[in-house]
Amino acid sequence: MAWETVIGIETHVQLSTKTKLFSRASTEFGKSPNTNVNLIDCGLPGVLPSVNKEAFYKAIRFGLAVGAKINQTSIFDRKNYFYADLPKGYQITQMDLPIVLGGTIDIETDKGIKTINITRAHLEEDAGKSIHDQFDGYSAIDLNRAGTPLLEIVSEPEISNAKEAVAYMKAMHQLVTYLDVSDGNMSQGSLRCDANVSVRKEGDPELGTRTEIKNINSFRFVEKAINFEVKRQIKQLENGETVTQETRLYDSVKDETRPMRSKEFANDYRYFPEPDLLPVVISDKEMQDIKDSFPELAKEKEKRFAKDFGLSEYDAQILASSKIMADFFERSAKETKNYALLANWLIGEISAFLNKDAIEINQSKLTPSNLAMLINRIDDQTISGKIGKSIFEEMYESGSSPDKIIESQGLEQISDDGAIEAIISTIIQDNPSQVEAYLGGKEKLFGFFVGQVMKITEGKANPQSVNTILKEKLK
Amino acid sequence: MSIQFKTIRELREMLDEKAISSEELTNETHKLAEDLKYLNCFVTMNKDASIEKSKLIDQADNNKSVLSGIPLAQKDLFCTEGLRTTCSSKILSNFIPPYTATAVLKLESAGSITIGKTNMDEFAMGSSNETSYFGNVHNPWKKGYVPGGSSGGSAAAVAAGIVPAATGTDTGGSIRQPAAHCGITGIKPTYGRVSRWGMIAFASSLDQAGPLARSAEDCAILLNEMSGYDSKDTTSLDIESTDLLHTINQPIKGLKIGIVKEFSLGDLDSEVQNRFEDSKKLYETLGAEFVEISLPNISASVPTYYSIAPAECSSNLSRFDGVRFGYRADNTGDLNDLYIKSRSEGFGDEVKRRILIGTYALSAGYYDAYYKKAQQVRRLIKNDFELAFETIDLIMTPTSPGTAFAFGSKGAQNPIELYLEDLFTISSNLAGLPAISIPHGKVNSMPAGLQLIGNFLREDQILNAAHIFQQNSAFHFDKPSMEEF
Question: Which residue among A117, A260, B133, B474 is least packed, with the fewest CB closer than 10 Å?
Answer without folding.
Answer: B474
